[in-house]
Amino acid sequence: MSLQVIIMSLDFESDTPSITKTFQKDEVIIGRSPACDIQLAQSVVSSQHLKLRVRPHPETGQEQLFAVDLGSLNGTLVEEFPLSPLVEREVQPSERIFIGNYLIKPMLTDEVGDTLESAGEDVVGRLADYSQDKDEAQTAAAAEKEETDLEEVTEFDEPVFAPQREGRILGRKESVKEQPSLEDSSDALDQEYQHGDKEALLETPEHGDLLKRKWKFGERKEAEEKEQEIEEMQEERQSALSGTGLEKESDFKAPERGRTDWSSKVTSQHAAAVEGEVAEDQVTEIHFDAVMLFSLGGVVTHHGRPLEGVEVDGGVFGSQQTGPDGRFCFDDIEESTPYELRVSKTDHVFKAENLKGVVQQDIHLQVEAQRLFSLSGRVVVNGDGLAGVKIEAGELGTSHTDENGYYCFAGVVEGSPYSLKAVKKDYIFECDDADGDVHENTIVNISAIRVFTISGVIKHHGVPLAGVEVDGGLIGRTVTDENGRYEFRNVPDGTKYRLTVRKEGYKFRMK
Fold it and tell me: 233: helix, coil or strand?
């Protein structure tokens, strides 16, 4: 089984042809790096952007195709659905993959060297839609350039295309000059062209000109809509030039004779223009220093799933919140710029490497989030809260009950183990859930019991008598020491007792 990959650029101004590659291996890497199996040159493509993998179904043994985004900065779409970073997803035979302005159609084939013509009709049809739109756009742009006076042409930004299911090119904007009304044109001309003498009809001035105008610019309503889009783009470009002193980006003046007075003016976000005059017989050299720009971004996950609503503070780069895909990205950072990111979200802590450093290349960070919970409860004696009880919880630290008997350990990282121990003089404690792990806000209540001590001294004619056995029944037995003293400690409140004292050769009575 071979893995065949068809790639097409959706940029209608590009001359890049579609390509088809067939691989006799299970994994294919796509990215900007020359080391990749398929190299894509656009800046939106990461060094190693996407992996295609073929493996058999564990039960049926049938070959299946999978795709995994290798943590790219700008993401990957399968149809309109974004791939989660580093999470493998099966690609169905009818599905297409989009990276920037590239359309990628992978498929499994039994023959080595299959081409686009041997692919399924559905794939060929939808790729042909893209190709036809691209060719028509290039032809229309070339024809308009020849017929239009260069001084009347308005310049626009390069088009941006967004793929959709029907395989059409979106976002194409054209320069439209004011044209005579086409409202009087008739569809009968189209019918006559289809079924009559095409060349004669086109050479007729009134009919040929009308047909060409109708085909080129469409109906008046469509032309007016495009004209409105163009005006909006012009306003955006003029806004970008405001404050630079230039009326349009082409206002760059070459050095002329005269005084030497140079000034630098920004014409766009990263471009620079210089204007001035050169004194007579003076040779002036103009030098520029280039600075590389990189991106600093990443993805925040919780147990492998993207985490939304995380605040990422980049300092001078600004602040961002992660979206449903858990991603954040700061673009156009100059090389050698130091950075320090602060990641925050209520009731969460974060772990990541390289949150502080210097930007020398595109940086993609993997940030893992952990939830924070609380471990709390109440210590009661005879139903009332007991104040001043020391609660030891191992690595979580130590707490004390308040006047109502409550204690609390806040900010406990999920999965943390605990072992509770309560301490207070003249009390013993009982707890059913003293040991466990915190996976949610946890409440552990503790019961306290007041304890007492029963003790005394046994003497013979005022002299302490050692070795006397004292039997306390349920509370235990003991023997007097050399000082004639006996003691029963930690006798619970309410315990009934009876003492029996004996020693051979002696009779005892309570004093």
Answer: helix
CA–CA distance from 129 to each of 25, 125, 178 (Å)?
Answer: 30, 6, 30
Query: What stretch of H or E contains 408?
Result: strand 406-413
Identify whether the C-beta of residue 308 lies closer than 8 Å to the C-beta of residue 322: yes
Q: Where in the chain is the domain with CATH 2.60.200.20?
A: 2-132
Tell me how far apart the alpha carbons of residues 82 and 176 are, in angstroms, rounded to a whole number. Answer: 36
Residue type, 85: P
CATH T-level topology, domain 292-451: Immunoglobulin-like (2.60.40)
CA distance 409 to 45: 47
What CATH number labels 2-132? 2.60.200.20
Q: How far is CA 429 from CA 3, 92, 420, 438, in A?
A: 69, 62, 11, 22
d(CA 184, CA 21): 51
Q: 369-394 in b/e burial notation, b at 16+ Cβ within 10 A? A: bebbbebbbbbbbeeebbeebebebe
Cα distances (angstroms) measured from residue 365 to each of 72, 283, 331, 350, 369: 10, 49, 14, 12, 13
Question: Structure tokens of 333?
Answer: 């950072």
With 0-12 CB in 10 A as exposed, 13-18 as middle and 19+ as buried, what is 12? buried
Distance CA(305)–CA(294), nearest Å, equals 26
Are residues 159 and 12 in contact, defined by beta-carbon separation less than 8 angstroms?
A: yes
pLDDT of residue 159: 36
- The helix/strand/coil state of 214 is helix
Residue 345: CB partners within 8 Å, gap ≥ 6?
307, 309, 310, 311, 369
DSSP annotation of 16: P
CA gap 117, 124 in Å, rounded = 7
User: How many CA atoms does the CB half-sphere of 438 hold within 13 Å?
Assistant: 25
- Beta strand pairing status for 363-381 and 446-457? parallel
Evaluate the CA torsion angle 334, 336, 340, 341 in order and state its sign. positive
Q: Output the pTM of the full model.
A: 0.43
pLDDT at 140: 54
What's the pLDDT at 288? Answer: 86
What distance lies between CA 463 and its chain's CA centroid? 85
Return d(Cα 76, Cα 40) in angstroms, integer. 14
Residues of the chain with CATH 2.60.40.10: 292-451
CB 316 within 8 A of CB 384: no
For the chain, give the number of residues: 511
Residue 89 main-chain phi, psi, to 5 deg: -135, 135
pLDDT of residue 51: 94
DSSP annotation of 420 reads: -
- Pick out the chain residues at pLDDT < 70: 12-16, 111-227, 230, 233-234, 236-284
